[in-house]
Amino acid sequence: MSQLETKTPASERQNRLQKLLALEKAGLNPYPAKARRDRALAETQRDFASLEKSGADFYLCGRLRRLRAHGNLTFADLGDASGKLQIAFSQKEVGEKSYRDFSRFIDTGDFLEVKGHCFTTKTSEPSFMVKSWRLLAKSLRPIPDAWFGLKDEEERYRRRYLDIILNPEVKDMILKRAKFWQAARQFLLARGFIEVETPVLETLPGGADARPFITHHYALDMDVYLRISMGELWQKKLMVAGLEKTFEIGRQFRNEGMDAEHLQDYTQLEFYWAYTDYEMGMALVTELYRYLAKETFGTLKFKIKEFTVDLGGKWERYDYRKTVKNLTGLDVLKISEKDIKKKLNELKVEYDKDGFNLTRALDNLWKYCRKQLAGPGFLVGTPITISPLAKRDEKHPDVAQRFQVILAGSEMGNGYSELNNPLDQEERFKEQQKLREAGDEEAQRHDKDFVEAMEYGLPPTCGFGMSERYFSFLMNKPARETQIFPLMKPKN
Question: Which pTM does this prediction carry?
């Protein structure tokens, strides 16, 4: 570590500002617009033997790391997105003035363009001998030391760009995240689905039980909502219109609490598939989840929290009524809100008492049970009272044709045979509206436009939604940590 790097960040920034002024005074542009680069560093490493043999000069670009001066010879690590390579600056090769300028003006963290050729050092280190160099961007702040720089979690998230530089696993996570969503897109496109875009701003938020974010549309002088689903009601209108396979991947927003599994601003996938039911949906989702895991991580076996999960094995079926009865002794189709409250208190389950009703009571009871299930599997037999957009089971009208992916004690996706009876949908919206008026802010709104669209005819359809939570579980990390730039409170 050089003497400069032992200084405080404030004094180092001042020192670099002085260098910046000196650079400009010397007629050197510290921020040119264009760079010359013939190959990435990983390519150079890959083809090193042939490049060294040819002795040809070519251009590399990257950020300088770990400067090591030895009189008239300085070694440094050059890094780009693909990898790193040791480079050497020799006064003999670059000339006295150029070497002096380099020693005077350049710091670790600066971006450089270098021209030279490959060679191997006496210690057998593949290296690049610089013949000429050019500054591409002067850094005014030193990059913290990997061991002492960003230990605080909040600072890591706030300065994510430094976290990526210092922690290779963060960069690897970002690459995996990109691969994950690309794989989801490839999977559906290969099966004839078309990708669509639906409104992010809505006059009536729908498609989920959630509290929305509200903003104001100045041009139309009205309040609007950020969507809480990935265009569920819009995509079902496309089924009415005659499209048969649609999906959307995008951001959605829920103004709710934060924990290891829940965020307010996150990526979601939803697909809708006409002339199918929830059984066909479960078969496709099983394929999808396996494909995503294999394509992104190269395996179907994972350690998630305290669970060992094999996605390639048998997927269980968890019946809602039977599972709750086995784990709590209660029959969800024959109990009251009062009964559930009593059981929740016995189990020491904390819950939000504002707007509490039978729907919320059942949800809290199920969440207690769900935490004990390893999966992978599907929850089926959900009571119709908590499934306002799903079809009733023809043999058991008290339950919905709904399925939820269960993985490591959590819900990892939600789908159903979509309700396509407009009269039934109208009545369920009215029931949801009553719950809202009684204080349940997460109950769904009465969307008359959607009911009108349904009256033109909605074919049998399976719909399914999956959020980035599945990716975070496969990474075995909190959801916030697997976002590239998680939301942070501003510093005071």
Answer: 0.89
